[in-house]
Amino acid sequence: MLGRIVNIVNLDAQYRRPSGWLGRSIGRAMARDHQPENRWTIEVLQAGPTDQILEIGFGPGVAIQALSAIVSAGQSIGVDFSATMVRAARRRNAAAIRAGRVQVLGGEANNLPFAAARFDQVFSIHSIYFWPQVSVALAEIWRVLRPNGRLVLTILPRELWNLDNPDLPVGTPECRPYRPKPKIFTSSRNMACFRPLE
Fold it and tell me: What CATH code is carried by the domain that includes residue 177?
């Protein structure tokens, strides 16, 4: 019975904005299955203890939790437009929230609720696929980054989706995979590297 219910649910819509019992289950799967991406992204960030860091699309709040141990005198802040994930991340990060090292907020990449030049670093893990207007979101990120700030976008390249069955279609209107060329982009605000995860 459960399998039949899940088959009629648009899973991409749930990964985009988890909600209800299925969203909570997806959040637990994200916490478990995205550990390599979380570790790698935190390594790339090379966060310092006083950094001001923003995560867009934090899901269950695992990366923010790991950063809260590193960013001891700064702040790790996250925005996610899923109320289910905001609640999950608040539970996971309750002690760091009480200590003032972490904030998790409802919000969207296209309209970040922060002043200009607020953050040293902005990152997102497996979230850009779901942004309806990527160029608007990137302009917002540019606005909230400090000069010489860094943006790290961790994605699974399109070529690595559906490895077990490459004949399956890739992506939906709600979930658009990307095919980046592996390189590091630099500017006055650094846009950090794409690298396929093994």
Answer: 3.40.50.150
Q: What is the DSSP letter of 13?
A: H
Asked whether residue 197 is assigned to any structural domain, the reply reads no
Considering the domain boundaries, does residue 66 fall inside one? yes
Q: Which long-range contacts (CB under 8 A, 24 or more apart) does 172-176 make?
A: 172/10, 172/12, 174/10, 174/12, 174/13, 174/16, 174/130, 175/12, 175/15, 175/16, 175/129, 175/130, 176/129
Query: pLDDT of the chain along its 198 residues, tens only?
Result: 444 444 434 655 556 555 566 656 666 666 666 778 888 999 999 999 999 999 999 888 999 999 999 999 999 999 998 888 899 899 989 999 999 999 999 999 999 999 999 999 999 998 888 888 888 999 999 999 999 999 999 877 666 666 677 777 666 656 666 655 544 333 333 333 443 333
Whether the full predicted model's pTM is greater than 0.85, yes or no, is no
Domain presence at residue 198: no
Q: Tokens for 110? A: 């296209």
